[in-house]
Amino acid sequence: MTAATQERMPALYLSHGAPPLADDPVWPGELAAWSAGLPRPKAILVVSAHWEEAPLALGATETVPLVYDFWGFPEHYYQVTYGAPGAPALADSVRKLLRAPGMPVQDVPDRGLDHGAYVPLVEMYPGADVPVLQISMPTLDPVKLMEIGRRLAPLRDEGVLIIGSGFFTHNLAALRQGGIPAWSAEFDAWGRRRSRRGTWTRCWTSPASPRPACSPTRAPSTSPRSSSPWAPRTPPVSSGTRSP
């Protein structure tokens, strides 16, 4: 199959929570069944909200480890492995698409997949047989992020599945309140409406959006190695599929 006749891959946004979702009685099966209907990708490019680093960074391209960037969970969540192959050819394509317009790109060859990336992939492709590359979010500016997406869009015509991953709302302080806060439900409904209308470019500063409460955060680091306010545990090298 040539690039000209190949079906264009979709670009996905996956909203999901912490590693315990793997034990949910419904979510893993639903995600697996839904993803089974997608075209088979040649490679996966994933952007996780858990890796903020500027300039834009390319993660591991050979052996791809996991980053257990969460704390206080039962030990078995730190024993999950996902030995997906690296995607060096995809990394080369990303460099060419971004550097040509003058965007700086760096390599962080020991940076593996954080839980924002591997939690859904374990359910979608449990065989860990699709090459995966994770890249960082170099900015929180939505207009700039949209431009990066436009530059990377041609990869979809080369069999690359592009995934944006991260909880749609992520305010840890709200966990103490219990239940679903009204602003969270409102933001979820607001996002659904925008998705159906395709009007994202007009909504970044919309006063109708409660987004500041939904994902309070700090600006991404410009340090080459300080990519998050959450310091991850030292990741092991993954060489297999999901541990039981």
UniProtKB/TrEMBL annotation:
Similarity-based family: Belongs to the DODA-type extradiol aromatic ring-opening dioxygenase family.
Keyword Metal-binding attached: yes
Stretches with biased composition (Low complexity): 201-231
Region described as Disordered: 201-244
CDD domains documented for this protein: 45_DOPA_Dioxygenase (cd07363)
Protein name: Extradiol ring-cleavage dioxygenase class III enzyme subunit B domain-containing protein
Keywords: Metal-binding, Oxidoreductase, Zinc
Domain of life: Bacteria
Record-level Gene Ontology MF annotations: ferrous iron binding; oxidoreductase activity, acting on single donors with incorporation of molecular oxygen, incorporation of two atoms of oxygen; zinc ion binding
Keyword Oxidoreductase: yes
Segments forming domain Extradiol ring-cleavage dioxygenase class III enzyme subunit B: 31-190
InterPro entries, alphabetized: Extradiol_dOase_DODA, Xdiol_dOase_suB
Residues annotated as transmembrane: none
